[in-house]
Amino acid sequence: MDKQSEQLSAFIDGEETLCAQTLAAIAQDPQRREQWRRYHLARDILKGSATDVSIKIDVTAAVREQIEREDQVVVRRFVPQWSKAHWVTSGAIAASVLMVMIQFWQAEPGSAQGPGALAENSNAPVLSAQLSPQALSRLQGYVSGERMVPNASPVQ
Amino acid sequence: MSEAKSDLALVRRVQAGEKAAFDLLVNKYQGRVAALISRWVREPADVADVAQEAFIKAYRGLARFRGDSAFYTWLYRIAVNTAKNHLASKASRSAEFTADTMGEDGYLFDQQADHDTPERMLATEQLRAAIHDSIAKLPEDLRLALTLREHEGMSYEDIAQVMSCPIGTVRSRIFRAREAIDSQVQQVISERWRGENG
Q: Is pLDDT above 70 for B35?
């Protein structure tokens, strides 16, 4: 006796809970799907539900394919937006950090104005003093909006 | 468990991301949905397209389905609206539809869509006769178990009490009864489709 068919019969009656794996196996097996369909057809006929056995139709696979296709389109649309937002956010964070650092540096009493004086200024904040002039220039570029994307080639 | 509850269990699984559960709902209802759509739409290819569109709409809207009504009631409305929209769209592209084809509710009916044709009624009647014939030939214990389930809507536990047997026996009897009926259903359907193709 076919155990899976008996399971299917009990499942139709709501007397059996199928695990996801078994459910998927039934849905993917054309013979099982047909069996499931005929069981319900017989049930509909017995209960006098409106049905039409003269119509031969099977849109299961077509519906499934369309759902899969549309889901993939949704994913493709979503990824670039996320990616773009990611880079913009990264640039904005870098710019914000730089702004805070520059304001902190300029607010220091006796600080020199400009990146060239940084190395000579012993009172400069430790964090700023660790930046090389090239790095500082690059960071100022972020603030002025010349570069928003990290790791891009330096602006000449 | 009633059919509505059984459907709702499948719907909940779809809502949880199990697409295979939706495959079973499509498989279960596509015949009824196609029969419904064919009241408005004449061409078999169009019936299949509209049915497919209705199921896609249902899938997309399933996240909002709360289960206040039966799944089929909800699907029924989607299928009817999809069929009517299909006709309205077809009418806007074609001059063959006139005011004469307007239904009472203002929607268009396909001129040739004739729901209860003698052929269709005969096909359903043949199947009904075959099913009742196979039930009549079932051994008494199988027939009783199936009747209590299908006509009285009793649970396996209740049937077990009525028939004074274990639940497992009820389950087995109902399955064997279904298998006997199913062999008749298969025969009628395959003969019919063979006749159409040949």
A: yes
Mean pLDDT of B36-54: 92
Residues B109-113: what's their mean pLDDT? Answer: 50
> CA–CA separation, B141 vs B159, rounded Å?
11
Is B25 within 8 Å of chain A by CB?
Answer: no
pLDDT range class, residue B34, cuts 50, 70, 90: very high
Please spell the DSSP secondary structure of chain B, one letter per residue. Answer: --HHHHHHHHHHHHHTT-HHHHHHHHHHHHHHHHHHHTTT---HHHHHHHHHHHHHHHHHHGGG--SSS-HHHHHHHHHHHHHHHHHHHHHHH-SS--GGGB-TTS-B--TT--TT-HHHHHHHHHHHHHHHHHHHTS-HHHHHHHHHHHTT---HHHHHHHHTS-HHHHHHHHHHHHHHHHHHHHHHHHHHHHHHH-
Range with the poorest average pLDDT among B49-58, B75-84, B117-126: B117-126
Please indicate, yes or no, whether the overall pTM of this predicted structure exceeds 0.80. Answer: no
Which residues, numbered 97 to 156 in chain A, qualify as contacts with chain B under a Cβ-Cβ cut-off of 8 Å? none
Ordered by where they begin, the domains of chain B are: 1-114 (1.10.1740.10), 116-198 (1.10.10.10)
Residues of A in contact with B181 (CB under 8 A): 42
Q: List C-alpha distances in Å: A74 to A35, A71, A86, B13.
A: 34, 5, 18, 21
**According to the model, what pLDDT value does residue A124 have?**
45
Q: What is the CA radius of gyration of chain B?
A: 20
Task: Give the number of A-B residue pairs with CB atoms closer than 8 Å.
Answer: 157
Tell whether ipTM is more than 0.90: no
Q: Is A19 an interface residue toward B (CB < 8 Å)?
A: no
Specify the range with the lowest mean pLDDT, choosing from B109-113, B116-120, B192-196.
B109-113
Contacts with A45 from chain B: Cβ below 8 Å: 124, 127-128, 131
Return the HEC string of B153-172: CCCHHHHHHHHCCCHHHHHH
